[in-house]
Amino acid sequence: xxxxxxxxxxxxxxxxxxxxxDTFQKYKAKNxxxxxxxxxxxxxxxxxHSPLEINQKVKRILVKNxxxxxxxxxxxxxxxxxxxxxxxxxxxxxxxxQISNTQNIYFNEINLIKINxxxxxxxxxxxxxxxx
Length: 132
Description:
Blueprint: H1 4-40, H2 51-64, E1 68-75, E2 80-87, H3 89-100, E3 105-115, E4 120-129
Antiparallel strand pairs: 1-2, 2-4, 3-4
């Protein structure tokens, strides 16, 4: 028994360190995949409020909150962005709050549609962009 405890302690510490390493690797992989998605959308941080930059801010919010984006349509004549995405209800509400806190954007219409698949909610947003 006296001999077995040090062996158990070493084995337990090795398992704990391996678990920490695996968790770190998963975090690193998720972080890099999010960076790749942001790069694919060519989202850059900008301080100005042109319609294109606001459109990119909306995309950034959707990607950061892991929304399943179905479409983003841009109507340049009326400065309107139509966005369709789905996710769990709480996450959709968080996105709506974040978009509402973005300057120069207001909601024309918000439609929430319950999808029976995996308890998801489809959100259809019609956003108007106010120019300075």
